[in-house]
Write a structure and sequence with these properties.
Layout (H helix, E strand, L loop, with lengths): L2 H14 L3 H12 L4 H7 L4 H36 L18 H15 L3 E3 L4 E3 H4 L24 E3 L4 H10 L4 E10 L11 E11 L4 H16 L5 E8 L2 E10 L16 E3 L1 E6 L1 H6 L8 E8 H9 L6 H4 L2 H4 L3
Parallel strand pairs: 1-4
Antiparallel strand pairs: 2-3, 4-5, 5-10, 6-7, 7-8, 7-9, 9-10
């Protein structure tokens, strides 16, 4: 191998390289492990030959690096000249996020109760049987205590079925007067339907004071429902039964899907149940050390997803948990 001839060929080829890919190909051809120069260096047996071959290698490497730099500068000059941004053109539209309808409804509920002077509380989701059932006067044979209706972690702990245990915690921690609303996620072994889901958010209000009446409860519920649904939506109250309230009522809201004509969402009644309410059972007050002859109270609980469903006229509750962007981008 003639080192001078090899060097002349390499330098001429590098000078003629038009792209970075060409330069890389020449680097492999003249300096790679299987190139003639590398093979010759492996066979060197004397000092003079080694110095000559290493000098050729260094000059070829220098030429390749210089050609790479030259090509990079040329590419940069081309891009600065050709890739010009027209600042007068409209920019790209960036989609902005928005609050989930459950979150926006929750904030609206919080604002309504804060305006009434209520305290907003969010408590633990893992509860004990004592606070979730016993302190709320659920009878021992109540169906809700069954594992078919409730998610039990063990014999004493469960995922709360409602946010009512928060009210017990507050009543045990401080005395009346109490005006609070507990907001959070609850869990039930419910069948998935148009208005029910096994996981949902709930807001529950509690007022304990002297001279509390059922009229105070109805007035509070009507105030919150007007804040949620507006003045045009009809509201009615039905008698019902709950272990922790006596008397008990259920508020219904006129169905926004069919405008009370009857549909699957309202089970063809024209009304959708919003939750449960009533005067606090005296036994619950006794359980937390309060005298029912001195103190009275009312309590109510409603699902936030169902309130959002009725507020926005959505026929199903499932989209609130499916994270379908086609639905969420409408809010």
């Amino acid at each position: 191998m003639d080192p001078q001839a090899l060097e002349q060929d390499a330098l001429a080829a590098v000078a003629a390289a038009a792209t970075a890919e060409d330069v890389e190909r020449l680097r492999i051809e003249y300096l790679g492990r299987k190139s003639a120069l590398k093979l010759a260096l492996r066979e060197v047996r004397d000092r003079d030959t080694g110095m000559t071959l290493n000098a050729v290698r260094e000059r070829i490497e220098g030429a390749i690096e210089a050609r790479e730099a030259e090509l990079r500068r040329a590419e940069l000059d081309r891009r600065l000249t050709e890739d010009v941004i027209d600042v007068t053109l409209p920019g790209e539209e960036h989609h902005l996020g928005s609050l989930h309808p459950t979150t926006s409804t929750r904030r609206l509920i919080e604002d309504a109760f804060l305006g009434l002077g209520y305290e907003v509380v969010d408590d633990r989701e893992v509860e004990t049987v004592h606070y979730n059932f016993d302190q709320l006067a659920f009878p021992p044979a109540h169906p809700t205590r069954s594992p078919r209706d409730t998610f039990f972690l063990d014999a004493e702990r469960l995922l709360r079925t409602e946010t009512s245990p928060s009210q017990i915690h507050v009543m045990e921690a401080k005395g009346p007067p109490i005006y609070m609303v507990s907001i959070g996620r609850v869990y039930r072994r419910d069948e998935i339907t148009a208005t029910r889901f096994p996981i949902f958010h709930q807001f529950e209000g509690l007022a304990v004071d002297r001279h509390i009446t059922l009229a105070d409860l109805k007035g509070t519920l009507l105030h919150v429902m007007r804040a949620l649904f507006g003045e045009q939506r009809q509201v009615r109250f039905r008698t019902h039964f709950f272990p922790f309230t006596e008397p008990s009522i259920e508020p219904d809201v006129s169905c926004p899907i069919c405008d009370m004509e009857g549909c699957r969402t309202c089970k063809f009644t024209g009304w959708v149940e919003l939750g449960g309410a009533g005067m606090v059972d005296p036994q619950v007050l006794v359980n937390v050390g309060l005298d029912p002859s001195e103190w009275q109270g009312f309590a109510f609980g409603c699902g936030i997803e169902r309130a959002a469903q009725l507020r926005h006229g959505i026929s199903e509750i499932r989209p609130f948990w499916e994270n379908d962007l086609r639905v969420l981008r409408q809010f």
